[in-house]
Amino acid sequence: MQTSDVVIIGGGVVGCSIAYHLGKRGIPTHVIEKDDIAMGTSGACDKAVLLQSKNPGIHLELALKSVKMFPELQKSLDTDIEFLNHGCMIVIQNENQWKVMEGFVERQKKLGLDVKLLDKNEARDRQPALSEDILGSTYSPMDCEANPIYLTLGLYRGAKKHGVKFSLGTKVTGIKLEKGRIKSVETDSGEILCKYVVNATGVYAPTIGRMVGLNIPIVPRRGQIIITEPVPKLIHGGLNCARYITAKFRPELLGTDEMAKLGVGLALGQTENGNLLIGGTREFVGFNKTTTHKALKAILKHAASIVPAIKNVHVIRSFAGLRPYTPDGLPILGEVPEVPGFIMAAGHEGDGIALSAITGRIISEVIADGKPSDDLNIDMTKLSLDRFKNVDVNEFRESHNCYSFAS
Amino acid sequence: MNEEFICRCEEVTRKEIEEAIADGATTVAGVKKRTRAGMGLCQGRTCRRLVTQMLSKHKAAEQIMPDTSRPPVRAITVEEIINSEDR
Question: What DSSP string describes A171-229?
């Protein structure tokens, strides 16, 4: 039988980041991934590493600490993660949005985010492709971008270099406890004795949680994204819209039309190859990963109202990713006291890429030192599974159209 | 021989695909994520067969799943999609 101090379940960006940090500290670690690296949510998202899309509070604090770690990753990983610090703008199309964004920006500034409002001319000077019909935008020079697939692969390769073992194409079939504590992980190719199990399986976290008797409140939220042919430089840095922020945090404010039902908000970026990535939606449709004509049309119509020049560009593909959504929009991190040795690292919704670095550090410190180091100054109770003890998890799942546990 | 293009759109060579397989890729999607093979204009119409053939040296061919197909079937402009009829 194999033995490892830590078994991480899930080879997405979160699992690979934790593996990388544990590997660097020399802690024997084994990652079990049912498919391949970055094959789920981490490989089906856009390229933004955003601070502006984080709620002022612990959410933004985590992101600020995480994004600070990216330049070092770009340097130390052997894989080019295409990290860029070219800022991001959030486009404002009407007076109502302006009022909302004004308040949002003020609160973010207080937490140390360098962000300001631009009028129409200032916005169009910075991003010449913007429509004449916009009202203005925000701008933060602190927002970044990275290639999510290369980031995940880079962390995977970095972890392997530091001695972490990976079993790809391997499925976890059960978790054994001994006197209530983690004893081993059973897979379709054998059992691994271990002290800790890290549940880094994103939208599949409830399935793993059930193996140790936990009911974890995470449901899939689908995001559809469109890819175009490569075009000459059109978009500088990242571009989002105020609807995107509203769709993320207060979807009920968008109204009841088709666009609102789909949770359409702009997320636009251009890859190093020149392809445009145009998103996106926020929909609760269970584990359905298909893309829909209705959504693609709505996304593109909205995007073209902000950047008219995209109308003549060819679309080559669409895809959808399932974001692991929790009742308060924050990830679930840390050891679960009811099951000693069982550690949660899931539920990052659309922030998995941005928060991957800090998550890797926090979880590796929880395992190695019992808690995150004091200089991080993170209130782990705000991220614990326990914060949802009064949430009716079954009701939460069903009200978000999630009626089954994915295998 | 190793420098020949398997994916013409993204100019991915046989050698790069072999490296991706050595890095752990066991599926067409795994090769694609590591190399960009199949991410170009034709979306893998030619290279997915060649990549599958290369993968089959390491894994039984019937176990190699095709990559997910997604709309559009062929490249069309943003404007054509915006003006398309609701379905």
Answer: -EEEEEEETTEEEEEEETTEEEE-SEEEE--GGGHHHHHHTTT-----EEEEEEEEEEE
Identify the CATH class of B5-82. Answer: mainly alpha
The C-alpha of A311 sits at a distance from chain B's nearest C-alpha, in angstroms, of 5
pLDDT of A129 above 70: yes
Q: Is A277 on the interface with B (CB under 8 A)?
A: no
Fold classification of A88-141+219-325 is D-Amino Acid Oxidase; Chain A, domain 2 (3.30.9)
For chain A, residues classed under CATH 3.30.9.10 are 88-141+219-325
Going by C-alpha positions, the residue among A53, A54, A50, A11 that lies closest to residue A29 is: A11
Note whether B78 contacts A304, CB cutoff 8 Å: yes
Q: How much is the average pLDDT of A380-404?
A: 97
pLDDT reported for residue B1? 65
Closest CA in chain A for residue B81: A297
Which CATH code is given to the segment(s) A2-44+149-217+328-399? 3.50.50.60
User: What tens digit of pLDDT does each residue of A59-72 get?
Assistant: 999 999 999 999 99
Question: What pLDDT is recorded for position B64?
Answer: 85
